[in-house]
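Blackboard transcription, Thursday session:
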Amino acid sequence: MEHTLAKAFCRTGNLKTLLMQGNMPDFVKEFQVLFSAYFGSAFSGSQHSDITMLSYMSHGNGDAPAMMEKPDQLAVLSTETYQDLISCLNEELSPPRYCSQPSPHPDMWIVDPRVQDKQIVTMNGVTFACVSKHVGNSRILFTMVGDNLQHAGEIQRIFIHQRRAIGLNTEFVTEIFFVIRQFQALDDMQAAYDPYRRFSGLPCRLFSRQFMGDRVIRAQNIVSHFASCPYQRPELSGQFLVVLSLNRVSVLGVVLTAG
Amino acid sequence: VDLSTAWADAPITVVLDHSVLSEVWADMANTSLPSWISRAPHNLGSRGHGKLKADQWRTACQVNLVITLCRLWGHPGASSREQALLHNYLSLVIAVHWATTRSTSEQHIELVEQHLVYYVQSTLELFGSRALVFNNHASFHIPECLRAFGPAHGWWAFPFERYNGILQRFNTNSRVGMCTNVQIGTKTTNSSNR
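(Written on the board underneath:)
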């Protein structure tokens, strides 16, 4: 009996992971609809999210974002967000290749300010949402290129943007971007009263509830969601937020703090 | 320590009393969590919520209690006992956190080992030998399992917890031993899809 139990468990576990992959042949995708109809309600919990995420990590997410709206229905970015987007696109490029105005340099491309807004996106089996839609799904830790600090922020806006590709065979590339409002880190004086900081192995810190401003980031900058709770103590004046990382692929040496 | 007699005549020590639990409940109501996390019951610690699932225990202990106990017992004005209790509890939380990450290394394992040892030593100091259970001994084998088998999600006991749940929910009509392999297999197939 134990053998039957173990075999059935392993078979269905593998089947579930297989069906979670985005790059399955069409006939298997059809089967997935039936599978979801019968067992969809049973798909919940942290364990399920873990399996889904691992499945995507090992096999990749086959579903690339696509612009669904007609060009005249797209939203136009504000000047500030547009400039942030250009900075984000140029971040790993030297010299910069994207600009907002025509350039005499032949390798410079003008970035289209039109985007398609999204309220919710699911990437690698994890759902991210704008703060207006779901506060818990909007609070994320993220890193910037070249540093090992994790910053805490809130997703204000999610948009899909299409641009001309550089160094790729495809003519255009479509990508999801997030407008993040970053929580301010504590200064040294305040940090002395942070009770979470004393435990170096604990992935939890206090942040100020004041925001530093908006910035545009890519999907690959996102580390994980975080659990958050307002924090108040008499010895610490101001409004603060406990930020507890929910990253389960934690790497030692990556510091949960911000500057 | 003789664990079979350690609990005999031991006085009851309440650590999470009603005042602490009230703070935990208040923080739980204000805590924002992503939708993929299983939430612990809002009246955690009361009899009313019944038996918690392993996933709910994980959220309660790794998220909710960490947030509140650090706030209550981690400030400079906390008593030495409160601070000792906090260090004791957080050493277990840190050990569990680093033992269950999706990647592991010798540094991870040393951190786990160090905090598990501190947890057991400080438990002995705070509560005496009566507080030790067989799982404390078993936990000292986790570092060698991490070295031998890699990240814990490949060999941890969550699937077996699920088995226990399946077997407990199985309707036997009080006729133990009458279930056929087919019935069990079908039930398992359905449930393991969860």
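Lecturer's comment: Chain A has two domains: 1-43, 48-245.
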